[in-house]
Structure formats: C-alpha cells, structure tokens
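Changelog note: in this version the structure field was regenerated for every chain. One regenerated record is shown below for reference.
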Amino acid sequence: MRVKHFYRHIWVARGRRRTTIRHVGIRALALLGWVLGAMPASRVEAYQATTDAPPTEGRSRLSTPPAVARTEGPGTASAPATASAPGTTSAPATAPTSAPTMAPFIDPWHSMGYEDMALLMKTARRALDAKLTVDAELAPGYVPPALRDRTGIICLRARSKGVLLGEVTTARMPIVESANAAGAALAQTLKKNNVQRETEGRTLGGSGDIAGSSGIAGPIDGGRAIGLELEWLGPAEVLTAHLADGGQWSEELLHSFEPGVEGIAVEFQGKQVWICPSEIVTRNYSPDLALAAVESKAGVHFIHKGRLRREIRYLRFSALHLWQATSDVLPVRLHRGEVLVESPEVGSRSLDALQLDEAIARMRRYLRYLQMADGGFAEEYSPSADRFDHGPTPRLQMSAMSSLAALAAWTGQASDRERLQRCVERAALAVKPIHRAEKDEKRQGDDAGSVKVVEVGLAVQFPGEVDCLEPTARLLLAKLALAPSTARDDSMAQGLAKAIRASQGGDGRNDGRLELMLDYGATAQPESIAAGAWGMRALMAWDGAVESSAGRHDAGKDDTGRGDAGGSDSLSRVLEQARTHYQSWYERDAEPRASAALARALMQLYGRTNDARCSDLAFSILDRFAALQVTPASCPMPELWGAINAGQPGVVGSDSAAYVSALAEGLVLARRIGDRQRVERYEHAVRLGARFILQLEFTEAGCFYVRTPRDAIGGVRMSPWDHRIRVDRCGDALESLIQARAALFGKPARRGE
C-alpha cells in the first residue's frame, strides 16, 4: 500500500480502486443505519437514550392533516380466522391510486354504543374462559345490528399486575368473530406459557412470550382474574408524507399521526407491520422512536431508505381501546390510555365541587408520596420503565416546594405544614450572602469612580445556577406561608426580601427589571420574566406580612419593621417600574408561561394599588389564553378539550395548569370589578381547563400497564400521549385545581384530611 495525501485520500492497493475518506464516512453511516434499523424496539430506546438529540415531541393534529388515501387497513380481509403473529401480515392486494385530502380527524367509533363495545370484550372473555377451563371453542353468538357489517382486526392482550402475560392478533374478519377467535387464541398462548387455571401461590412465568413476569405470583381462576386489553384496529390510511432526502424522516411524516390515538404501519417488500396506538402509550414512544420501532419490525434499514425510498409506504390507523381489569367489573374505553373525563359542555354530569375536592385529595396524597425524608422530592416517574428519577434538579425541587406551600395554605393541616417545613429547611441550606459591585460615591480625587463590593442580602444559590431570583422568591413565599405573623423577626426572611428588593437596578441598570445574577456580565443570560414576576409577588407578600404583624407605625424597626428591605413607598416605586418594564416586554414578546406568571403578579398588584393599568394588562394576557383553549368546536377529540394550546401548535399537556391557575385568579378579579362578559368567559375556561387537568391524572384504569399502581395513581401525565410523571407538573396541577375550586365554588368549610 502506498499513501499519498493521507488526510485527503486513502489508496487501496487493489488495481485502480480508490476510496476517499468521505466515502468511508458514508459507508460507516450506512452501516450504523443498518445496525439501528435491525435493532428490536427495546434496543432502539436504549440507543436513543445515548444520543444527544432529544426525541421529537409529539403533537396533536388539531388542524387538517396531510393528504391520505384509505386502504383496507392493517392486514387483509381474506386471511383465515386464526391468530397471527402480532403486528405482522401480508400487504393489501391493491394499492390506492389517488390521495385525496382527508377531512379533520373523526372517531370511527363515535356512533357505537357502550353495549356494543362491551359485547366485544364479553365475547373475547367467554372464549378465553371456555378454552382455559374445558378446552372448548365457542361459537361467536349474537351479533347486534350495529356490528353486523363491521370487520376488523383484534389485538387481545392478557395482563396481571401490569405485566403482559400474552398477546395475539387476529386476521381481518367480521368483528364479533374476530373477538371470539382472539379469546380462544389467547388461551392457547397462556397455556403455552404455563399460565393455567387455579395456580394460586405459583409463579406466573416460564419461557415464551411473557414479558418480564418472572417472580410474579397470583391466582388465575379460569381467566376470570386476568385483565384483558382489547384493541380493534380501524381502517388504515396511506400517508402522502415521505422520507426526506438522505433517508431522514420529514417533519410532515413525524407529525402526521395522532399520538396515542393512531398507530403507524409500514409496507415494504410485500410485508406490512404496525405498532398499535396503545403500544405508543405504554412504551412511551415519541414519534421518531415509534417510526424507528415499526421500521425495525418491517426490516427497513438505512440503506433501504436511501435506495428504495419510494417502495416504502407509511400508513396510519386509529383503534378502539378497551380494558377490563377482571371479569367481575365492567370494561371501560380508554382514550390515549385513560378513561375519558366528561366535559362540562356535553357531559351528563357537570364539573362540581365534590369532583374537584376528590381530585385535590388524590393529588395531595401523591405529592406527599413523592416527598422523601430529607424534604426533597422524587422528580420523575416513568410508568413504562417502572423507574423513578430522584434528581435533584433545583428548579423542580423549588417548584414542588411552592406547590406544597399552596397546599398547606389550602388545607391548614399540621402534617402539610410539617412537610413544608422540611422543604424550607432543605432549601435554606443553599442560602448564602449575595454581593454586588457598586460605585463608591464617598471616594474623591484620584479614587473617584472606584467601586466597592457590598452585601445586598441573602439568596438561594445552587451550583451551576446564574439567576437566583426565582428560587429566592419561592423560598421567601414558602417561609411566609409557614409563619406570616413572625416574618418581621425572621432574619433569613429579611435577608431574602432585601436581596429581592435590590435585584432592581443591579449592574447599573435602570430599566425596571428584577434580576438577581450571581455574576453580572460574566455570562450572557436571557432575561427571566417568570423570575421577575415571582420577585414581585414575593415583595408584595413580604410587605403584607410585615404590615399585618407589626402595623405601619412600629418603631422597633426601620420603616415599619421592614428592616433593610425598604419601606412601603419605596416598594411601590419598585413595583411601578417593574410593571412598566414588563408591560413593554409583553407587547413585544409574550412568551406563554412567563405571561401566566406575570398575569398573576399583576392581579396581586392590582389588589394593592387598584391601578387599572395592572388589571388591563392582566386581562389582555388572560383573554389570549381563553382564546387558545381547545374546545369541542375546534377539536373532535374529547380528551383534549380544555387544554390551552399557548405554545407550539398541537403541543398540549400539563403546562395548561399554569394557565388555568391564572384564569382562575382572573375570574375572581373579574367578579370584583363587575366585568360580566369576562366572568362568563373565564368561568367557562376554568371549568373546561380543570376538566383537562383531571384527564391528565392517572386513575386505576389508566394503570393497566403499570406494575406498581401506587407509584402512578394521583400523578399527572406530562401530556395525554406522554405518560411520564414529573413532580413540578403534579404540583402545578394540584395548585390549579385548588385555584379553580376556590374561584368556582369558594373555599370549603373543612379542607384536607
């Protein structure tokens, strides 16, 4: 081998064949793509966890979707009435010749009654019980008129304590026959995996298709104690969205299916495979992970996506998802893995005070469950992995502490105050003096213009955090929630208030913003509007606590007991300058979550000053949130009604809780000033928003795939299709329901226990 210009070319001594470094890189990428494409779904997740790129965020198709063409659906209509391998069948005999524009999403089962859905589950369970008990195969039985002309594919799964015991998928056939065949085939699968009748005290497990069931014991009585999950796969639609150049998924393809409602299918080389909507939920797939998993099942590798891109077809399909925990309970329909909460607009039962009280109690228990002995919180729970992440992340910990403070104020229970005390003591460990360089006005002559370093108060300073205003304000508010009457004698509270007061005008600024930086000018950081809003709220709460505990003419402290935190007149100037600055920010930026925090601060400021400029700006923010709420008129999917889509279009989730809290406070303010139109508008928005928060809550039915239900029940999902539970979002949801309960129905006589 001879080498020439090594950094540009690699010469190979085989005739005249030459390979450049660029070619080597391309082949290496192709090999990596082939390896990734060949991975099973579980390894795809593991690979994704090691990459730097975040998973693509799922979003709802709230507007008209990409053009599609309808086909026979996953599978064919001519297959025999026996269970096939899950998610695998032959391709349709004919391909569509056109791709008309599809209408907005419509539930294919909206015209079906509950009795017809329950009949399918009953048919499957009867067939399962008969096969397990007496090894008999039953005839399908009665077919109601609504199901006589319906065909479909049934995916039937058996679960015990969240563990998947077995799974079968039928071919396309008349739907009642399909349910009957699925039950009999599932019984065969369970027998094959040694899950048999009357095995009380024996381990459910062995080899075969039982995923992770080793070491789990329990009684199985002819299948009656087994939980059944039935999924009826609807017609499939061929997507016109294709791969982008280079074999990458296009943005249109990534967001062309409704997460948790529609599954994904791939046709390639005469084979069609799919992933059901329930699998996307239970495995917590993002759109890119779902596509990677279904491509892996279809044998689509990176090299195929480059050379045979036009031969790969992507489809989507919706599914009817039913769950029955045991044969003794009625089956329920699941929407994105959870039972539907009725809407106040269309439901027979409007949202009432009792419903909110019960939800507050459940979320209270869960937030307390997440708290550890040292006062900190377990930060995130992944139901699909059955794993907790304990952090600690300062931002999440301080947010949970604020929610616990709101809870303690709501319930008045000593146990909640004791838990809040532990949080405060833990956060106080990060409190340190904060210093700032200021011009020394006393120096004259050659020393004129020199600077001096002065202590401006106490601040919560976490390692790696630059702006410490928000955690400092949250800690001060938590301390005031614990002991407002003794605030004037609390040296730490005084130091925190002093630092927040000094945050206006730091680094020589005079624009009115509140900003508490550990090192001014050293690191360029964008302004945090939410932190400024928290600072305003903390200063007003501090001033109110000092006034109520000492009176306005207390001679024991400088300026009515406020110490170095400043007097009432000085505070009014600070707040007015801050209002002017943040109003200018809102007119040019208006980021949603920061706007929600600002609206709450402005409404609190209006209660102090009666300045109409505060209420006008707050109402302007809240009117925008109310207009962005998902309603039956704008969305056909009832599980999304009440969400506030203030961010990226189609991305809705537990962040709606922050907007609902602001709207609830706005409802109280609108009543106070007599704005009847806004009272009606905000009351409707708060009711519908609270409904969406309840929809995000994990219930017993929603834990059908969770191995440890107590780790999830009462928690709040990140979004309807992202079932991770994060402590700050749980706290936000709890606080939003407390605010909604108070705004809609007032405070109950007894709260808490």
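Spot check on this record: The mean pLDDT is 80. The chain is about 40% helix and 15% strand.
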